[in-house]
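Schema walk-through. Below, the input block comes first and the output block second. Nothing else is stored per chain. Lengths vary across the set, and this one has 226 residues.
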Amino acid sequence: MKNRSAFYVILVVAVCSGIMCVIDGFITPPYFVKSAFKLLLFMAVPLLYFVFNKPERDTLKTLFTPKKRDFLAALCLGVGVFAVILAAYFIFRNVFDFSGITAQLTGDVGVTKDNFVFVAIYISLVNSLLEEFFFRGFAFLSLKNKLPRWAAYVFSSGLFAFYHVGMTAGWFSPVLYILAMAGLFVGGCIFNFLNEKCSNIYPSWLVHMFANFGINTIGFILFGII
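--- output ---
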């Protein structure tokens, strides 16, 4: 049963990540249409897994059970991540060309200066929750008791980085692109560690949220909003 459940989780995560990568990299629908697909693939599909897999339902409840003692540490880590992201941008903005990001967003998915505020709010609050539930809650916490611990870490973090390949294609120079993918893999491992220690997705969601605050602040700068 454990091996069968692991196979289903791996299959669902791999297929849904691949579909989103194709949607982001090749189909490139308007941003809010893409977000609807992500809601279906990253929330509805895993929930169906829990609906039809009764023994796993306690795991689902645990994912959304917050623990107050974990909040302060996650908040401090999130603020630190926010500061590091902004510092890295200001240090390297004259070394790497970031201008392709706004051009790619505008050309591919219709994100512009006029609607970026709404997109930034969605990315920070909703999108981060979807990704934490899917990659950390569903992929990692569901698999770590069914696979060797290292395999759950590598699979969840690797798919998290892979999922961003289509989304960020054309944003950076090749060197910066490789660094960004490596950073996403390492970030995924850190998020997994937070979830493993806390057994719920809220601490990693908080840190992820602050990471997105940092990235979106850079977006505000690139779009000339601030």
